[in-house]
Amino acid sequence: MLSMDIIAEIRRRHLVSGESISAIARSLNLSRPTVRKHLHSTAAPVYERQQQPAPKLGEFQSTLEAWLTTEQHLPKAQRRTARRLYEGLQVEGYRGAYDSVQRFVKQWKTCKARPAATQAFVPLVFAPGDACQFDWSHEQVEIAGVVQTVKVAHFRLSYSRQMFVAAYPRETQEMVFDAHNRAFTFFGGVPQRLIYDNLKAVVEAILVGKERTFNRRFMAMANHYLFEPVACTPASGWEKGQVENQVGNVREWLFTPMARFASFADLNDWLATRCQELAQRKHPTDTGQCIAECFAHERAHLRAISATFDGYVEQMLRVSSTCLVRVDRNRYSVPAEWAGKVVSVRCSATEVRIVAAGQVIAEHLRRFGRDQLVCDPWHYLPVLEKKPGALRNGAPFVEWDLPASIKQVRERLLKQPRGDRAFVELLLVARDAGLEPLQVACELALECGVVSGSLVMNELRRLIAPTRPPQLSLPEQLQLRVEPLADCQRYEQLRGTHYVH
Predict the structure, then answer these.
(1) Which pTM value belongs to this model?
(2) How far is it, in rounded angstroms, from Cα 166 to Cα 183?
(3) Per-residue pLDDT averaged across 264-286, rounded?
(4) How many Å apart are CA 240 and CA 231, to the nearest integer?
(5) N or C: the chain end with fewer CB closer than 10 Å?
(6) pLDDT at 1
(7) Are 376 and 331 in contact (CB under 8 A)?
């Protein structure tokens, strides 16, 4: 294919200078048919390669096509990108370039995909600290050896493009509150507006146009942090297109291949670290800076956080006769004196608090399985006073993780007559004194070789007895000049005077 300058020279020499085709061909080392062909060419030549050669990909094309055919039936979130397919081929022995894989995947998807209608959008511009976009996504993660679908909360500052993500087992309102607390702490402040879908945790009713009835508890959080909530038009994801695009990117960057962690805490710590690392990427519009540099500028425009919002969801429940309340298919213990009464149960993302009479009467770490029993043995101590036999088979006490010395003393006492009552009396004293003095008392009793309730109680009382105050040293002005003598005859005088025979 001749370049445009050679074609122009051929035309000038023949049409202007009058040179023959043979002379031009000899001079430019071209064939006469080629010269004759380009005498009438006025447009630039267009070269289109019909097929891009990919010699190293050739033997792997069948494997790649098999993968694509299999994954086209999977949900879009579980399909591998061209980059992940390239990495898979490298494991299989492929040593070619990524571009060859990318072109093949693009051509294959173009042949399989249906033509889609093109939509037009208006580019958006945001001021520093003006807006932040929020969305949820569902990702596959292995937690403590169990593969499960987790809900990932996505935040994205619209000006700097700084992102923050956090994973949760559920997509409930208390998780939304906790995600906001984490995000604002990560950002170091609060933007003026937050843009949402019409999710139930935020919006209760969709009215005409942009009018919404927001959830009252959610508005309590918005009022606490002083940001304005904005709900998108239904089915109009482009109104928060940045975070919509982030969902796909984060899935490729962080959750492909599948992430594996021991707990949600470890996963969220890793996600926060990765958000900081990914901020070193170039800003999509201001290419002269990275996202971290733009975020440093935007942070100064965020509203400072005065206090963290207490993000719990409250419900009123009646305590059962077994001193339990049922929360989200799990049961949590309550002090025995509240059995049969109504209490307030406040659930956050990480804990369950039971409140009554204006005070927190019980706190438990929240569980997310099913049919789990979460008991605090101290809650059942008043019941043991009346029913000490429950010590042997009561669920709170069978699984009680006590120090080894206390367990040994309990096993020995339960083999003795009325030993269960003796051990309950030890627990009643330890409720105020703590388990550490009881542990020391049990160790002392085991060293003696004789274990009885009275012996352990005696050691325990001795350990918790208040120390004798030190002897006071009085100043000279308060000391007696003449100390009284101990004279028993004085009492005899009193006895002789007042005693009537």
Answers:
(1) 0.71
(2) 8
(3) 95
(4) 10
(5) C
(6) 64
(7) no
